[in-house]
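Table S2 (text version). Query chain:
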Amino acid sequence: MEYKIVEKEKFILLVKVETFDNEIVGEEENTLIPDFWKRCNADDTFDVLKAHRVNGDVYGACAPLSKEETHFEYGIGSLYAGGEVPSGFDVWEVKANQWAVFQCIGTDGQCIGETWDRIYKEFCLDQDIICLMILTLNSIRQRM
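Corresponding structure-token output:
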């Protein structure tokens, strides 16, 4: 799997968050996270993000998975310009760190599930690291 390691400074995301069962990770037929993207595309999530963003990028951010926990949080968001936090949204501060950067290109939520599956199976299981995924979808970018 192609990826690059980059140094990233601390950044702040405004995110809409849902909690998912750890057991969905690696399930080939699971569509819960792509379905979350579809719901956000259908409601006002992207309009709210657009009003509070630093740039036009939209990210899918997965909080670190832990063997001690049964669930993980997944957020859809953008770099946060600051101000009052809109109802139904959270602010995530991401510390400066080294990142493994993967590309996810597609026009619908299906590429997210496929990319997550590959990252988990081909990268995370072979590394002694915490995986945090940031994805940008072409269709979302065009809408924003």
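Notes on Table S2: Confidence is low (pLDDT under 50) at residues 130-144. Strands lie at 4-8, 11-21, 59-62, 71-79, 90-94, 97-101.
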